[in-house]
Amino acid sequence: MTTTPHTLKADSDLEAYMADLGARARIAAKALRLASSAQKVKALTAMAANIRSSEAAILAANKIDMDKGAAKGLSAAMLDRLKLDSGRVEGIAAGLDAIAALPEPVGSIDESWSQPNGLKFNKVRVPIGVIGMIYESRPNVTADAGGLCVKSGNACILRAGSESANSSGAIHKALAAGLEDAALPAGAIQLIATTDRAAVGHLLGGLNESVDLIIPRGGKSLIARVQKDARVPVLAHLEGLCHSYVHQGADVQKALAVVMNAKLRRTGVCGSTETVLIDKAIAQSFLPKLAAKLHEAGCEMRGDKASQRLDANIIPAADNDFFTEHLAAIINLRIVGGIDDALAHIDTHGSGHTDCILTEDADAAARFLRDVDSAIVMHNSSTQFADGGEFGFGAEIGIATGRLHARGPVGAQHLTTYKYTVHGDGHTRPA
Amino acid sequence: MTTTPHTLKADSDLEAYMADLGARARIAAKALRLASSAQKVKALTAMAANIRSSEAAILAANKIDMDKGAAKGLSAAMLDRLKLDSGRVEGIAAGLDAIAALPEPVGSIDESWSQPNGLKFNKVRVPIGVIGMIYESRPNVTADAGGLCVKSGNACILRAGSESANSSGAIHKALAAGLEDAALPAGAIQLIATTDRAAVGHLLGGLNESVDLIIPRGGKSLIARVQKDARVPVLAHLEGLCHSYVHQGADVQKALAVVMNAKLRRTGVCGSTETVLIDKAIAQSFLPKLAAKLHEAGCEMRGDKASQRLDANIIPAADNDFFTEHLAAIINLRIVGGIDDALAHIDTHGSGHTDCILTEDADAAARFLRDVDSAIVMHNSSTQFADGGEFGFGAEIGIATGRLHARGPVGAQHLTTYKYTVHGDGHTRPA
Questions:
Q1: What is the CATH number of domain A242-390?
Q2: Residue B259 at interface with chain A, using a CB cutoff of 8 Å
Q3: 20 to 30 A from A128, CA-CA: which of A97, A324, A397, B86?
Q4: What does pTM read for this prediction?
């Protein structure tokens, strides 16, 4: 319950250590809630400067993680996510500067109205409180999450993946120095100083009402554990099983460019298209052209029988392929009878992340945008635009695939909640 | 998985029965999501008409509940909450008509914006899906909850208290007939047809991903059980430990009228004031006048030592009184040194429901409205305005005291979530 440095050792008395983190976070949340916009900007700018001046220490810490990871036999993809270099460190600092420059999310008024009795109402944005963030390999999430939480007036407790423990620790040290420069409490951004998995259990238990929200960011098994064990609300990022639907009214050239980008710009991001649905009426003029481009780009094509008939390079898709987020240069292809078929396919197979219709037919587009029940529904654009930066949110802490509180890209503004202020002049309520 | 009437018996195979309710609700939610505003209004209007034409049956069912309740020894207050008469049945019908007349919450656009690349974005209100509602004695909640869910495009599964089982069943029958009149599926509003408490456990377990949100409405033990056992998000209504703070800059006459109303208009509602904090600087001119009025009105006064010195009828308050939602003609009184003291008291003792400052000092009011972290923060008005109707929401399903998704009065508009629609013209994302 103090703001002095930790004296508890994380590994000798984990429960007391975690309870102390929670108590510090709760106190810091109050300071952050009442902090001025200028004070938060000062902290974020100092954090960015400290990241830049700590580059050597951050890269040295990252080398330890990389060496351990290589010895442990981490995959090339995981090692790439873990790796920092001078450019990536500058990217982390620039990200913090960008968060500093975002509009202030706290105190903005969503709505104002009056009642006939003269009472005036405002719905005002306020911070959530304490956010527990659990994430895997990418060490930059330490800075993104810490920065977005400070901007939105929330304290955070960060749990980095064990493979990035040293890198995350070095980044956290730079953030903590930035908080100090702006006279904000160290409890505003705390990094759990142990790789003991039991720490996650304590965090999910809510640390005696010290945690208001958990945001997990990682693979399916992490998310499943969080959703099973959390005793506090969770803003989860599940998978992105995204569809691009080529309607019979599509412009073929436009649709070709969009689908190629939606699948192949980057195959490892959650907004990449996994399945292309193509109207029967346009399949003969569209699919062979698409298949030629995909084949040339080295993308494996798995299709239903009707699509296989139109291109020899399309191999048979298993039923399960249409439920699989490949995150690789593999695409599912299916010919559908029309928009009803497409909507039913997405309803059954989609993950509620991002789905797009390609068409010049305004009525079909309007129906698709209304009827598809996903966080992001698009018309004539690449599903790879599913990203907080592309939405203009400046930075994102993840893409929420649940239905409550926030859906889609979660930026600083979505890490707030609201309260009502009511303004009277001696108003009493009649019996 | 069908829309035919139930053939499963709730009491012989509860798990299969509950799973079937969930599956029906999920199918109905899709129909409701896509229903037109006119179709929902038609259903709500028909529901109101059916309530009126079923008055005799509803009152007969209520008599059974009342007789059972009296035999069981329910308190007078509980029996009063349970009791229906002709006026209350008309109130239920009028409530449904009022919900029908509310603005359509689905499809409204919160925000629209464009990015420099020409992509256009809309943030659009959509239904949540399936809502599980668990409530105690008042049978009118069956109609309020069913009506608000239909208006907001959500299917609901209702669990009424066992003491109101017959009344709720008769009301539900009238609602079901209204759904049928508007060609909406019966799965849109389902009432759990058993008083077996294990049914609640299944509902809280989420019925195999068929429930998106649980709303409990009842006493502390119910809410505690729901928060402990729920595997899906919960919108909880905890207690209302509300404060009225008489600042030294208060207008004495205005403050007297507001505080009397805040405490005594109705003592059993969650928005009633439990504790009055009074600035030392105004205590001598204000407190004796307030104490005389409270005493005359038969309100028991429990105060700290400083307040006891100012009026002989004030008895000593125990520490615990300041943490107690009396819901009775008992008031806590405390003299504070100034606004810092008052804010600290509310921070420690409040429940985050509703708190008010009485003052003519604009700076003090602004600070209180900013610094108090409650769902509703008021200036110069009775805390008893904490009510969806008084906010202009038309009807409410409860007052949320959590921090996520919705806070304060929960009306039809708060039973929605959002999605983004993104409008391009062949937009591809650069590498």
A1: 3.40.309.10
A2: no
A3: A97
A4: 0.93
